[in-house]
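Comment thread on ticket #2218

A.B. wrote:
> Attaching the input chain for the structure job we discussed in standup.
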Amino acid sequence: MELTPDIHLVDGVTCNVYLILEPDGVTILDSGLPGAHTRILALLQSLGHASGDVRRIVLTHQHIDHVGGAPALVKATGAEIYAPVGDTPAIEGKAKRERPRGPLGLAFAVMIALQLRPTTVNHQVAGGETLPVFASEGGLQVVATPGHTVGHVSYYLPARRLLFAGDAYRHADGKVTPSPKMFNHDTPQAMRSLASLCALDVEMSLPGHGAPILHDANRLIAEAVASVASVAR
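C.D. wrote:
> Ran it. Output below, let me know if you need it in another format.
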């Protein structure tokens, strides 16, 4: 699905995967579940790009539905992985993977054990850094939004008032909501991270789950923060 001429959403890969098309190469933002690489590469080809055009795969966090496709994508494209410093040990298989609480956690544990492969992170990123994506427009800024996972980050392009939110929130039926508690590493911290996004000037926001917000994202994020605050009082 075309969101802008140079940003496309890959359908049918559980989490939202975004293709960023630039003259000097392609960036894939998040990578879906294991096996998602087939849909991602098929869309890439339909847009007139070869697998070798992919320069980098940028990850928001360690959960299997966001990193599962990365190993196969690296093998197919030779791209480098950019990932949050706090989640890198888990992504590389050097620390325990975070998974949901409750009965669903067991299902995820089995899926992780059977399907998820470690991935080498070439570039560890942290809040305040700027990535060489949309470099001609000032670059993509890393925004620390921990809580959903220990090292979760979002990515912000001030020049377009554009936020790739990862799982800092979800969007459905015209409403932004926090990520469900069962999926969070630290829900109070996740709520603080969501509130911190109100400091950004965001018109268009592309979340990890739910429909992309093409207009008026600032208002929807602020309403979500206010709703959470009213419940907490």
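A.B. wrote:
> Thanks. Noting for the ticket: The two ends are 40 Å apart (CA to CA).
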